[in-house]
Model the fold of this input.
Amino acid sequence: MPQNRWHHNQYNRPNSLQAFLIATLLVLLSTHAIAFTATNNAPIKIQSDHAELDEVKGLSVYTGEVVITQDTTVLTSDKVIVYTNKSGLIKLEAFGAPAKFSHQQEGEALPTHAYGRKIIYTRADEMLTLIDDAKLEQGKNTFRGTTIEYNTVSRIVTAEGSEQKSQRVEIIVHPVKTDSGETKE
Done:
């Protein structure tokens, strides 16, 4: 194997030096690279059945029941590809049937849940893009479409249906009730 590439699976167990180097690399990447928000410096935990890291290319691939957690953010999928450079995370792509993203926003009673066969997170614009069977749940409100873009900072949602119009955008918004029980617009 090339010097800059670490390969691990259930049939080819790494020795203790390789395991230490992989763990060290993940810690270094996690403090700068795999944050779900640009300002979050909390540690990242990645679990998978298989991991392959290529430091020179800035690419790491995780497969098999992948779970990535940071604070109140959880991403689960069948496969995750992480793209990095010297300044940290560029992009994260998750694939699943569906891939799932969950985040508990500070000050919010209910978490945000996002689903799609493909989920792309780009750090530069803090954008979460859900592709194919896309669904976003914010509290009781639900957004469905072929593609959904969700800005994780501004919390702006854009949804699109399919070009063939076989799947239209569906948005279900529940009215907010005040303490007196009245419906607030």
